[in-house]
Design goal:
heterotetramer, A mainly alpha (about 325), B alpha/beta (about 325), C alpha/beta (about 500), D mainly alpha (about 350), B: about 20% strand, D: about 350 residues, mainly alpha, two-stranded antiparallel ribbon, 2 strands, binds adenosine-5'-triphosphate, binds magnesium ion
Chain lengths: ~325, ~325, ~500, ~350
């Protein structure tokens, strides 16, 4: 554990250093970066990713994954548009939207926990399904005329901090406490490492996973509300492909894809690192292919760095730790 | 209580009507003009923006092309924001989502940046002028006419479009449907609108599907460069070659092979390079105060000569070129 | 007498893991044809030594000699090529592959075009099992085998290598008398064929029965290497523990109270049938039987880990819902499972987390768990069980096998259960600790706890149980009171020879 | 005398076969055209590329890893093929094929090294290289598009040519399938892949050269992706930097639908190929069934789920029967634990 902890700490530390470092470099070299308005653009751009990354972190820690979040976002957005055209009050629409997300998550959760299907396969399926339903709902139309009060809220900010980000921050703190300090969080880690042992210890494995999938859906629909409002545009294809960005952020944040390992602060730092680099590179007129490139390298180095460290350590103590410990499920 | 659709009224365009045009003013030098296409590395826009760059160098400005690699609705917004940060003089944009970009564009204009849309318009309050490649009405109707001639006004036809949300394609298709209502088309029937998502492979399989499910299909209109080439490629390799007519929008280089082997008789397209070129000059004129975007104002667009701003700030590029075996070799784009 | 050179030898070898010095200056020579015992408490360093022989660990200091020549094993593959075969303490099987392929992985018999010859492979495996006298389907999957069967497969794997050196780390921990005897016969044959064997066990009688020489370790240090014949069990314990051993089966007699656990006609399709019995407060009831009799399955069904198809279970008169460990725990049940790596512990989590995982509700202050309380609880039980550890925040996985078992016990005892089910509670636990655990169990019983103890260790069963239930092929075949219990009676019932039990 | 694993495995694949048959009959009823030779030809053609990728992916997943970068490798390879053919007229096609396969293999080396030696979880490593390789592709293409017209018709005809009435592309896929399928089932090295996926640590102790095997697997998969790229170029003719974007999920889906468990150690190349066939048949069927284009995505997803669920139910059934029969005592959680991703 100590080794593990230090590894984690070292990784979060490294991320933080990376974040501050890239921030300073951009601040010094990229003109237009330092403006407060730019800071809020930067943050606003990652607000949906941040929102969806929060529950996904927990989901991945339990050894599952949810690739359908971006499609859930699309479906919710489409339904928001449909209902808005139908003349419902925006407030009631928000409530319905959250329920839609909950249902989407519930479907994923039931398929994974009750039928014991691999979540990757299931959520690839629902990725297609939910996006499809979005098209069925809103077709090729786009709904734009949302009330200025709310679109204003979504684009508005307190000081340099956009309101959606504040929302995300509050939720993140709550989730962080739950994950790192409560019995629920302990159970999440335990079953992430060894589902069977957790089950033998009387942890309600299925219920916990189900709950997390539902949460993932709800947060996705929350992200949908933010997205729809800040672009004041409800469309069936909103957020297409966002899932990989979120997964990338979570992994960059040091969450082990095989479950059991990861922290929320790490993930949020990861999200910010992405935001800063993207923004800075675009400002510096770096072409899009380089953006792809950097994203990829970042992702790889996110694990390469700590691994090399451990590898070196092992060289010294000349112990052959069986490789791919990572690879061990449950 | 609560807010419903009826409570919201679309706010009036913030077009800076206060400003007055001075047609005489010279084109400023050193203008910073940025091109923001739907998607970077998309051949069509690459050509268009080359044309734009040519124009900008012509009036001694500096131009650049930035943009997302995915043509998704909102990915343009962060680029608009950064361009605003960089205090460009003009943003020339082809909107992926006519609404989603508006808030950002408003901020840009509030910061004194002129906004020109080309190829695909944004909501009027988001831009000063729109450079229209060809009036949607002309396009929609001519496509049908061209095809009808080829099948002498008889038989089932289908449309192979881009994404279900593509604004241009959808307006064109509406005009096609309207054209088809006319009596002379009574023997023609539009059986299906398929979507190839501007993906080569999807368009290819969709064409297959069309011909499977409608064996008696006589013609296909594909108003997108990706779609038409994919469809043409399937036809040319299948037993339908020459039996099923195909027309739509395509670039000569993509279609040359199929025009020569007889898969396709005719297709149309405007010259993308000219589109970018005109957009650049419009931007220059705006930034130099020659025009403000009001109807009737005039400006000279280099080799394209004088252009007049039409209703709600729309500038027409002119009628599209029709390509066929005779003229195709004289074009290279 | 001029000693021949040892086939494999450790000279002044030391190995540490961070703070833990698992081995310091250990000497060991293995001679062809001898069966050499390695004794030591939990955490003494036996498995570490084994892993150094196997090329898993490379020593920090000292040398490994093969036929007198220094060698460096860069990995298990090297060791295997050098003719070293190892049975690891923890089974290392491929659950998705067939039993036969598990045995012959990387050495599968091949036919034309390097195509591997499955029938030949299965035949060879069947032969090995026959030699070990066990019934196992070579083409069946390894997933779902009991610990015991897994151990059998491991043994088959090792002897199938016809290695020059065979190292066995607690191979008998999971086995019952019959399999052990078989294993010993095989071992003796191998030795007579000139193979050198290293044998580790916490069952001293086995060491005396099988081995010629014994090397003892204490806290990673080499204590002695002597001829078994010149030793008494007490001497050996003395070497291992460094003190006089207290009584091994400190059973205190208690007056059984009212019924705490009642199992009625419990049945699970194809696993066990019509199992009925009761356990009273203060009683220790042993569930004995041969490997595969289905004892663990009964335990798992009672605790709700597996569903049952018919019958009922009630704790203090209140019936339990089928298939819900959570309600079972709420009703006061606790199960110390058979397979500590897969079921008992979360290897990657710290000792304290593992201890607390069953008692989180109790530890909770408001919504959160105070780390201090968690640590206090863990520290308390670590002390009571005399756990060997460097830091409570270390991952349980780095503890020695026996110490891991203690953590599992602590984790369940800390819930203050009414009924405690222990499946092989002292498997892989050294004599010292064994005595501790036994005293713990009987004290708990004395305090009114009802204990159901599954064990393959007959002396333990006879020494600790007030009543002995015997299972055979998924059915209860006998109930024997402490007073008239004897090895013969139990074995008779366990092997299904009815008459004897009556 | 075959083992339970194989028995289970066979059943798993039978499930997919069943689903595919049902799909064909169902669609055939409403539109007999779907059952025409011609349409089978098209479906085979459409399957060949995804199928090829799925076969490679199966190898990787069996070792409890995954390779998401295949789509990018395919894209890069396809564009490279296009450029080679367009800019160097008269370059023998064989040379182009070899070049692309080698290109793919090289990226495979990168993936393999990252996973096997730097010990980065495959998902992270290959998600990373997915971005990196696509970046390289964009940089290389820089907005250029290679059109059918620029490539020799001899090459393009590959996409449509037939041998004995069967198109060439599916034949190529079949050859690869036969090779991989046989190797996985019958070579020691093939079996070792299952061992690695089933229990990596035990594999090390059993003396399996884990790192070397993993490297090989990724290289092979990369090479296959490279080959797929060439086929893509031949079949679709229009090539730019976006070729095959997003296909990685389809490929993984195909493998998983085909009964290759993400938790490693289970599945076969045949299953993966069948999975690919099922998925492509579904989309072809939808196009044929005059389903409203907007509803197609939804139904696609629905059917995908249906396929997985069906497969799962069959597996559970067999497990139950086994338990009753041979006193098999796999734990209640056991199978689920096995199914848990990674
Ligand atoms: N990989 C490891 N990392 C850290 N410490 C370890 C590791 N392996 C063993 N240890 C420590 O080394 C010491 C010796 O462990 P080892 O497993 O050799 O004991 P053992 O004699 O086999 O005990 P048992 O009889 O319970 O199996 C123990 O304190 C253990 O905690
Ligand atoms: N006839 C058999 N056929 C197949 N497997 C068997 C058979 N008999 C026993 N087994 C194996 O033995 C296991 C049952 O052992 P189980 O642990 O339930 O019994 P036990 O009495 O608790 O033995 P242990 O002493 O190992 O706990 C099953 O998992 C199964 O793999
Ligand atoms: Mg040990
Ligand atoms: Mg048992």
């Amino acid at each position: 554990m100590s080794a593990l902890k230090s590894r984690l700490l070292s990784w979060e530390g490294a991320l933080l250093v990376l974040l501050i470092g890239s921030w300073l470099v951009a601040f010094a070299t990229v003109e237009g970066f330092s403006g407060t308005s730019n800071v809020s653009f930067l943050l606003l751009d990652v607000s949906e990713i941040a929102l969806m990354a929060i529950p996904l972190t927990l989901v991945v820690i339990t050894g599952e994954i949810d690739l359908s979040i971006a499609s859930t976002l699309g479906l919710t957005s489409a339904i928001i548009g449909k209902l808005w055209n139908a003349g419902l009050t925006i407030e009631s629409i928000f409530v319905i939207a959250l329920c839609v997300g909950a249902v989407c998550g519930l479907v994923n959760g039931l398929l994974v926990t009750r039928l014991g299907l691999p979540s990757l396969a299931v959520t690839i399926g629902t990725l297609a399904l939910y996006r499809g339903l979005a098209y069925v709902t809103l077709g090729d139309k786009a709904v734009a005329d949302f009330p200025a009060v709310y679109t204003g809220w979504a684009t508005g900010s307190v000081g340099p901090i956009p309101k959606p980000i504040l929302l995300a921050a509050v939720l993140a703190v709550i989730a962080g406490v739950i994950l790192h300090a409560t019995p629920y969080g302990r159970s999440v880690f335990a079953l992430g490492y060894n589902e069977e042992a957790a089950y033998f210890a009387g942890i309600r494995v299925k219920r916990i996973k189900l709950g997390l999938f539902v949460a993932s859906g709800v947060f996705a629909s929350l992200a949908a509300i933010v997205y729809t409002l800040r672009y004041s545009s409800a469309r069936a294809d909103n957020g297409t492909g966002l899932e990989l960005a979120v997964v990338a952020a979570v992994l960059l944040g040091g969450v082990s894809f095989f479950g059991g390992r990861g922290t929320l602060p790490g993930v949020l730092t990861g999200v910010l690192v992405f935001g800063v680099l993207r923004n800075a590179l675009i400002l510096a007129d770096v072409s899009n292919e380089v953006l792809n490139f950097v994203t990829g390298l970042l992702l790889i180095s996110s694990v390469l760095a700590p691994n090399l460290a451990t590898l070196v350590r092992n060289r010294r103590s000349r112990t052959l730790t069986p490789p791919l410990m990572e690879g061990n499920p449950s | 209580g609560g807010t419903t659709k009826d409570d919201t009224k679309t706010e009036a365009p913030v077009a800076n009507t206060s400003a007055t045009a001075d047609a005489g003013a010279p084109l400023k030098e050193g203008l910073k003009i940025a091109f923001l296409p739907k998607q970077i590395n998309n051949p069509y826009f690459t050509i268009a923006d080359k044309g734009g760059a040519e124009a900008v160098t012509a009036f001694k400005g500096e131009s650049k092309e930035v943009g997302p690699s995915d043509a998704s609705a909102s990915s343009q917004v962060s680029y608009i924001n950064t361009l605003t940060q960089q205090k460009q003089d003009v943003i020339v944009i082809s909107a992926n989502d006519s609404n989603a970009v508006v808030p950002a564009l408003k901020t840009a204009r509030a910061a004194g940046i002129k906004v020109v849309t080309y190829d695909s318009d944004a909501a009027p309050e988001g831009r000063d002028v729109f450079i229209n490649q060809a009036s949607p009405e002309d396009l929609g109707r001519t496509e049908v006419q061209v095809l009808a001639k080829q099948l002498d006004y008889k038989g089932k036809i289908a449309v192979l479009s881009a994404t279900p949300n593509a604004t241009n394609q959808n307006t064109w298709i509406d005009f096609m449907k309207d054209e088809l209502k006319k009596p002379e088309y009574k023997d023609m029937e539009l059986v299906k609108v398929a979507y190839g998502n501007d993906e080569d492979q999807k368009s290819f399989t969709e064409t297959q599907g069309l011909l499977k499910s409608y064996p008696d299909l006589k013609g296909i209109i594909s108003p997108t460069t990706v779609g038409i080439s994919a469809a043409a490629r399937y036809l040319s390799g299948s037993q339908y070659k020459g039996k099923v007519a195909l027309t739509g929008l395509g670039t000569p280089n993509q279609m040359r092979k199929f025009v020569k082997d007889g898969t396709v008789k005719e297709f149309e397209l405007w010259n993308p390079a000219d589109l970018g070129y005109l957009a650049a000059y419009a931007g220059g004129a705006l930034a130099s105060g020659q025009i403000t975007g009001k109807e009737g104002e005039k400006f000279t667009a280099g080799k394209l000569g004088e252009k007049t701003i039409g209703k709600d700030g729309v500038v027409l590029l002119g009628p599209p070129t029709v390509f066929n075996a005779d003229n195709i070799d004289s074009f290279d784009f | 007498m001029s000693e021949p050179t040892p086939v494999l030898a450790l000279v002044d070898v030391s190995k540490s893991f961070g703070a833990v010095r698992a081995l310091r200056g250990v000497h060991l020579d293995l001679f062809a044809g001898e069966i050499h015992a390695l004794a030591g408490e939990n955490g003494a360093g036996k498995s570490t030594l084994v892993k150094t022989f196997a090329g898993v660990h490379r020593p920090d200091g000292g040398r490994v000699l093969l036929n007198g020549e220094p060698v460096v094993f860069h990995g298990p593959a090297d060791a295997q090529h050098a003719g070293v075969a190892v049975i690891y303490q923890e089974p290392t099987l491929f659950p998705d592959l067939s039993v036969a392929e598990n045995i012959f992985m990387g050495r599968q018999p091949r036919g034309a075009f390097g195509r591997l010859d499955r029938s030949a492979m299965n035949a060879a495996a069947a032969e090995l099992f026959a030699r070990l006298g066990v019934v196992l389907d070579p083409s069946g999957p390894a997933r779902g085998l009991s610990i015991a069967d897994q151990q059998v497969v491991e043994i088959a794997k090792a002897i199938s290598r016809d290695a020059k050196i065979l190292i066995m780390d607690e191979p008998t921990a999971a086995l019952t008398g019959r399999e052990v005897q078989r294993l010993f016969t095989v071992a003796r044959t191998l030795a007579s064929e000139g193979c050198a064997l290293l044998f580790i066990s916490h069952r001293l009688e086995e060491i005396f029965a099988l081995c010629r020489r014994v090397t003892t370790l204490r806290d990673g240090a080499w204590i002695a290497t002597e001829t078994v014949a010149d030793l008494t069990e007490d001497d050996l314990v003395q070497r291992m523990v460094g003190r006089e051993l207290t009584e091994l089966y400190p059973k205190v007699d208690v007056k059984p109270g009212e019924v705490a656990l009642e199992v009625a006609r419990l049945t699970r399709e194809g696993v066990f049938t019509d199992v009925s019995f009761t356990v009273r407060r203060g009683e220790i009831v042993a569930l004995a039987g041969l490997v595969g009799a289905g004892r663990s399955e009964v335990a798992r069904a009672i605790f709700g880990v597996d569903r049952w198809d018919a019958g009922s279970v009630s704790v203090e008169g209140r019936p339990l819902r089928a298939g819900s460990p959570t309600t079972a725990m709420a009703a006061g049940l606790a199960l110390v499972p058979e397979d500590r790596r897969q079921q008992g512990l979360v290897m990657e989590l710290s000792i304290e987390r593992n201890m607390a995982v069953t008692g989180m509700k109790k530890l909770r202050r408001g919504p959160v768990i105070p780390a201090a309380a968690e640590r206090a609880l863990a520290a308390d039980w670590a002390a009571r069980l005399q756990l060997k550890y460097s830091r409570l925040s270390d991952a349980v996985g780095v503890l020695s096998g026996g110490n891991q078992q203690k953590v599992v016990l602590g984790k369940w005892l800390s819930t203050g259960p009414k009924v405690l089910i222990v499946d092989e509670p002292t498997r892989g636990i050294d004599v010292g600790t064994k005595a501790e655990v036994h005293r713990l169990l009987s004290n708990l019983a004395a305090e009114g706890l009802a204990v159901l103890m599954i064990s393959s260790d007959l002396p333990e069963v006879l020494g600790m149980a007030d009543r002995i239930l015997v299972m055979h092929e998924g059915r209860l075949t006998a109930e024997i009171a402490r007073s008239e219990a004897s090895e013969e009676k139990v074995m008779a019932a366990a092997t299904g020879r009815r008459g004897a039990a009556a | 005398m075959r083992g339970v694993i194989e028995r289970l495995g066979r059943v798993r694949e039978l499930g997919i076969v069943g689903a595919t048959v049902v799909l064909f009959l169902g669609t055939g009823l409403s539109n007999s055209g779907f059952l025409s030779i011609d349409s089978f030809r098209d479906i085979l053609l459409n399957t060949s590329i995804i199928g090829l990728l799925a076969i490679g992916q199966a190898m990787v997943i069996i070792t409890r890893n995954v390779d998401l970068s295949v789509s990018s490798i395919t894209g890069l390879s396809a564009f490279t093929a296009g450029v080679l053919l367009a800019d160097h007229k008269g370059l023998p096609i064989a040379v182009v094929v070899v070049a692309c396969v080698v290109l793919g293999a090289l990226w495979g080396v990168v993936n393999g090294a990252l996973v096997a030696y730097a010990r980065i979880p495959a998902l992270v490593a290959t998600l990373g290289t997915l971005y990196v390789i696509r970046g390289v592709d964009y940089w290389f293409a820089g907005g250029r598009q290679v059109n059918a017209a620029d490539m020799p018709s001899g090459f393009l005809s590959l996409g449509t040519a037939k041998i004995a009435g069967i198109p060439v592309l599916p034949l190529i896929t079949l050859v690869v399938l036969a090779a991989v399928g046989w190797g996985l089932a019958n070579f020691r090295s093939g079996r070792e892949l299952y061992a690695i996926g089933s229990n990596p640590d035990a594999a090390v102790l059993a003396g399996v050269p884990v790192a070397r095997r993993l490297l090989t697997v990724f290289v092979l998969n990369g090479a296959i992706a490279g080959l797929a790229g060439v086929l893509w170029a031949a079949r679709f003719g229009t090539l730019d930097a976006t070729v095959a974007t997003g296909k990685e999920l389809d490929v993984v889906a195909a493998a998983v639908v085909g009964g290759v468990a993400m938790s490693g150690g289970v599945g076969s190349a045949w299953g993966a190929a069948l999975g690919a066939l099922l998925l492509t048949s579904i989309s072809s069927a939808l196009a044929v069934l005059k389903v409203d284009s907007l509803a197609q995505y939804a139904i696609n997803g629905l059917l995908l789920l249906a396929a997985i669920i069906l497969d799962r139910l069959l597996a559970l059934r067999v497990a139950a029967r086994l338990r009753k029969k041979s006193r098999e005592r796999s734990t209640e959680t056991g199978p689920k634990v096995a199914e848990v991703l990674g």
